[in-house]
């Protein structure tokens, strides 16, 4: 019986040690995310066909989200809401910037992206580019994106995209500061943007 008790206590101590190590590892990972710029370096093009890199996310706080022009609801809603929130917290358009990175570079040319965004707002800049380079950015910014055929019997036919619907908030140094979820309470979203601008 005594041996069993010793074995159980040893197991408990090992588990406690393992949990402590995991907690420390997760905390350190979170700190590293907050310390340096979020995402990865990239070279893509904006909606006007001009070269753009991760340096665009420096100098001002940034609202960044990923979507596509054939998106039926999430993307146009996000564009519309973000435009309204930005006008509210930064009416002079001097303190906050926003970018829309396509998750569907096969269809979303810079021109198409620009037309799509400009129908809703002039406060958001579209980013597109070669599919392989865009895929690297999607992965590097920890965004989920997956092509989904509209007809399972025709996998090479028309498709939609499943993708992360949150807006990423980056400070003026490009560091991750939080997200605005799709469907988030508007007052909460505005407060998050206000806090982001305060630094």
**First and last CA, distance:** 60 Å
- State the total count of DSSP E strands: 9
Derived structural class:
alpha+beta
Q: Percent range for helical residues?
A: 40-55%
Mean pLDDT level:
87
Which labels suit this protein?
199 residues; alpha+beta; seven-stranded mixed sheet; 5 helices; 9 strands; 22% strand; globular
Q: If you had to describe this structure to a student in words, what would you say it looks like?
A:
The structure is a single chain. By secondary structure, the chain is α+β, with helices and mostly antiparallel strands. It is 41% helix and 22% strand. The protein has helices at 2-35, 74-89, 110-118, 131-140, 186-198, and strands spanning 43-46, 51-53, 62-67, 97-102, 124-128, 145-149, 159-163, 167-170, 176-180. The strands form 2 sheets. It has a 7-stranded mixed sheet with strand order 2-1-5-4-3-8-9, with helices on both faces. It has a two-stranded antiparallel sheet with strand order 6-7. Strand 3 (62-67), helix 2 and strand 4 (97-102) form a beta-alpha-beta unit. Helix 2 packs across helix 5 (186-198). The radius of gyration is 21 Å and the shape is globular. The protein starts with a helix and ends with a helix. The model is unreliable at 4-33 (pLDDT under 50).
């Amino acid at each position: 019986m005594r041996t069993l008790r010793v074995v159980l206590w040893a197991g408990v101590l090992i588990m406690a040690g393992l949990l402590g190590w995991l907690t420390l590892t997760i905390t350190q990972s979170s700190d590293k995310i907050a310390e340096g710029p979020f995402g990865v370096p990239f070279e893509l093009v904006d909606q006007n066909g001009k070269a753009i890199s991760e340096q665009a996310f420096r100098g001002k706080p940034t609202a960044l989200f990923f979507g596509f022009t054939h998106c039926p609801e999430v993307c146009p809603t996000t564009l519309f809401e973000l435009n309204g929130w930005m006008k509210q917290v930064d009416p002079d358009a001097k303190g906050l910037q926003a970018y829309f990175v396509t998750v569907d570079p096969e269809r979303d040319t810079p021109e198409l992206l620009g037309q799509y965004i400009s129908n809703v707002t002039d406060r958001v800049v579209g980013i597109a580019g070669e599919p392989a380079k865009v895929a690297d950015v999607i992965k590097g910014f920890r965004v989920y994106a997956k092509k989904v055929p509209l007809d399972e019997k025709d996998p090479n036919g028309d498709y939609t995209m499943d993708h992360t619907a949150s807006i990423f908030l980056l400070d003026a140094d490009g560091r991750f500061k939080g997200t605005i979820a799709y469907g988030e309470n508007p007052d909460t979203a505005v407060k998050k943007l206000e806090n982001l601008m305060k630094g």
